[in-house]
Design brief:
The chain is α/β, with parallel strands linked by helices. The protein is 31% helix and 26% strand. The longest helix is centred in the middle third of the chain and has 15 residues. The chain is globular and about 65 Å long.
Length: 295
């Protein structure tokens, strides 16, 4: 602690100097700006919820992106059993089947269990997993304490995977597992992961867990609002027990039913549908985004 204090003191006493490497004109920044286009997710009902505005016949019109924005880092949050991991796996399988390389960092379950789940997801989607299984590169942070507890080692491993396999997509399930029992560090860890994804031009999905005390449809996740504030956009999944005539009437369900909900809570890389939608998990474990509440 004494060394850290001395370093902080020296930093405060240092004469401020500008960092000119961080200064760009608009045109200089545009030279490095990626083209925004949609990345299809393989999740029914999701891709048309993102759009951009384009001039069409001298009028501005919304044009569907047909997917999540490329190079975006999207946060997928909700309490347990709302379909977060299913959506992440569905996205992974779909992109891999399209011929893309996907890095899947598993923090909760060992890689051999996750790959079995991915194979089930592929079967449910009518796809032959054997045809594209090696397009998925699993990083087993659940079994490796070193990379789960040490973010620099984790990112070094991911950098190796990206360079070796030409990876364009990264999924982390879950980022919450990277700051268990140390949520004070959540913001710093998520910021580091986000910056890394941007540096390597990854389109990424971060799965994060909500605490049971969090309001169902907010973007808040374990670690506070750190995840939602740092990433490009948040997709919130929720479930609700129909336990009153009021809810039964509002959702047009029977008392005792469970209703699942989905909402996009902000996306700074494109426009998005702001309504709350019904969400369905099929018997085979596929997630579908349905119509908005109220039609």
């Amino acid at each position: 602690m004494a060394d850290e204090y001395r370093e902080e003191l020296q930093e405060e006493q240092r004469k401020p100097e500008p960092d000119l490497t961080a200064v760009f004109t608009g045109s200089q920044a545009l030279e490095k700006a990626p083209e925004i286009y949609g990345v299809p997710t393989g999740i029914e009902g999701l891709d048309d919820l993102f759009f951009i505005v384009k001039p069409v016949k001298k009028k501005l019109e919304k044009v569907s992106l047909k997917g999540i924005p490329a190079y975006s880092v999207m946060n997928l949050t909700g309490v347990s059993d709302t379909g977060k991991s299913l959506m992440a796996e569905q996205f992974t399988v779909f992109r891999a089947n399209q011929g893309d390389k996907v890095a899947f960092i598993t923090v909760e379950s060992p890689a051999n269990f996750v790959v079995a789940s991915l194979k089930l997801r592929a079967a449910a989607m009518g796809l032959n997993f054997d045809d594209f299984q090696d397009n998925i590169i699993l990083i087993d942070a659940a079994s490796s304490t070193r990379i789960r507890e040490n973010v620099p080692d984790l990112l070094a491993t991911l950098a190796y995977v990206i360079k070796t396999y030409k990876v364009k997509f990264t999924v982390i399930d879950s980022v919450t597992g990277l700051f268990e029992n140390k949520e004070m560090l959540a913001r710093a860890i998520v910021r580091r992961l986000f910056n890394f994804m941007k540096k390597w031009y990854q389109t990424a999905i971060f799965v994060s867990q909500k605490r049971s005390g969090h309001e169902e449809l907010t973007a808040e996740a374990a670690g506070g609002y750190a995840v939602g504030h740092i990433v490009d956009g948040t997709m919130v999944l929720a479930k609700e027990l129909i336990d009153s005539p009021y809810k039964a009437k509002m959702y047009k369900k029977e008392i005792g039913d469970i209703v699942r909900l989905f909402r996009i809570d902000g996306c700074r890389m494109s426009g998005h549908d702001t309504r709350t939608h019904f969400l369905e998990i099929t018997e085979t474990g596929l997630v579908k985004i349905k119509e908005p509440i109220g039609g």
